Amino acid sequence: MPVLEAVEKSQSLVAVKNVLFATDFSEASEAALPYAAAFSEYFGSELHVTHVLPDVKFLRPGAPDPAFFGPIYEDAHSNAHDKMRRLSKRMKAVPHQVYLPHGEIPSVVYTMVQELEINLVIAGTHGRTGLGRLIMGSVAEEILRQAPCPVLTVGPNVVGASVRNLGRFERDAKIAAAEIKDVLYATDFRQHSNGAAALAASLANGFGATFGMLHVVEDYGDRLSEDPGPVEASLKKLREMLPADLDLEQEPEFLAQFGVAAESILQTAAERETGLIALGARSANGHLKAATHLGAAVAHRIIVGANCPVLTVRS
């Protein structure tokens, strides 16, 4: 069942009609390609592929003559066009449009989300730049912070598993949609995120995947073995997060664990061989720490450490 059909079964969910894939032609973007194809296929959506070209600005007095940099910039522009043409050829089986706008990446992506009515942004990340507390470095962090729609990030462990050992022939080959056999939704209950949980469940339905919902109890005191109350309360809350009208083909699994959030989520995902981790998100209000309800540090560790993509869904 396409994800779009699953989403339309519940009035609490929003159909995903337009997917934006932001690429810089790096290994990280290459690793994200199969997921762009998969989501477009299962949603039955239009895929919009963009590479943002930087503007050349000479604002400082005494800067070198712009004519000196003109040929260099034109070469970069031409190179980007060539790469986009090759990428478009590889994706000919997926309905898509390509864009080569100029400007600062986060603001251009934000504008495209608004103008094209984008419902999902997909981007790869190598996870190395920026401070450790930030999500994927300044550019991708800003996309995650600003985007008003769900954002799928494909982290460095996915890149390592799927791209770095590919030869030139494979990288020039047709894009095959990624398989997602398990979806894991993680929450700490600090934000009302029933819509995010329901969307994650619908994704699992559309992909024909198993679905798990996880809450990690971090504040359990020193009477862990004597007091099962927090676990039972957590399981009850998880069950209540799914709308009654959500028609799932497989029964979801509800999980509550004691431990450290990021480590427990990553371990559970590894054990389940999860193909997609979903995190509820709240309005950023200009601050990265509000980008996900699990907190920036936890989200960073999950994105960088996961062997699968991480989807953040705003409530």
Provide a concise account of the structure shown.
By secondary structure, this protein is α/β, with parallel strands linked by helices. About 40% of the residues lie in helices and about 15% in strands.
Q: What features would you highlight for this structure?
A:
10-stranded mixed β-sheet, alpha/beta, single chain, Rossmann fold, disordered N terminus, 315 residues
Write up what this structure looks like:
By secondary structure, the protein is an alpha/beta fold. Helix 2 crosses helix 6 and helix 4 (105-115) packs parallel to helix 5. It has helices at 3-8, 27-43, 66-90, 105-115, 138-146, 156-162, 168-171, 194-207, 229-240, 261-272, 296-305; strands spanning 18-22, 46-50, 96-99, 120-124, 151-154, 182-186, 210-217, 253-258, 276-281, 310-314. It is elongated and about 70 Å long. The model is unreliable at 1-14, 129-137, 164-170 and 286-293 (pLDDT under 50). Strands 3-2-1-4-5-10-9-6-7-8 form a ten-stranded mixed β-sheet, with helices on both faces. The longest helix has 25 residues, at 66-90. It has a single domain, classed as Rossmann fold, CATH 3.40.50. The protein is built from eleven helices and ten strands. The two termini are 24 Å apart.
